[in-house]
Amino acid sequence: MQYVSQIIMTPAEAATALFRTMPPPITSSQLGEYGIEAAEAQVPAIAREILSLNLYWALAAIDAHIPSKYRALIKEDLFESVQTEWWPSGQLGTGTWVDYQPELHERREHYAHLMDQEGLNPTGICAETAGRMEDLGLIESGDREKLLVLLIDYAPASEYGRLLENIG
Predict the structure, then answer these.
(1) The predicted structure's pLDDT at residue 166
(2) Which end of the chain has fewer CB atoms at under 10 Å, N or C?
(3) Whole-angstrom Cα distance, residue 115 to residue 91?
(4) Backbone region of residue 137 per phi and psi (left: phi > 0; alpha: psi in -120 to 50; beta: other values)
(5) If you write DSSP's letter for every residue of 6-38 in order, what string do you get?
(6) Rg, Å, the chain Cα set
């Protein structure tokens, strides 16, 4: 008989674990590893789109696996880590964390609509995100498929759920 043990974590520990699972802002050289050429000025916008996608998955995992009384604490700690660890570097573009909140909210609503109303799976959401980046001129049209592969690697939707599913 096999037993599955639950991992007991505080909300702060769960937020830290989620943050550590998230890939840091992507760099030009990492894009190059996937054969994607982007102007240096475009890299922060690409990194920001990837962050929005990762935060969508992380927040969805929190909502799916964490009791409601702990969700706000975990989200707050996760946001604090992103804001203090990544935002000051400038790798996510200009503007403040506060300036980014409406953009994040819009992305989350869009991704939720695609999942709930249109039935897209995580790969479909990644394809939609790659298309958005192409439409915005962040990548060349020939790089869309390469970006899709990158997004599947850099926005590990299943990892967030797996991390939180056994938390007690």
Answers:
(1) 58
(2) N
(3) 28
(4) left
(5) PBP--HHHHHHHHHHHSPPPP-HHHHHHTT---
(6) 16
Calpha distance 11→13 (Å, rounded) = 5
- Tell me: pLDDT of 72 over 60: yes
pTM recorded for the entire structure: 0.91
Average pLDDT, the chain: 90
Each residue's pLDDT tens digit, 139-165: 998 899 999 999 999 988 888 878 777
Reduced to 3 states (helix: H, G, I; strand: E, B; else coil), residue 117 is: coil
- CB neighbours of 140 closer than 8 A, spacing ≥ 6? 37, 134
CB of 93 within 8 A of CB of 47? yes
* Over residues 113-121, mean pLDDT: 90
57: number of Cβ within 10 Å: 22
Rounded to an integer, the average pLDDT of 89-112 is 94
Q: Is 165 left (phi over 0), alpha (psi -120 to 50) or beta?
A: alpha
Cβ atoms of 11 and 70 within 8 Å: the answer is yes
- CB distance 7 to 167 below 8 Å: yes
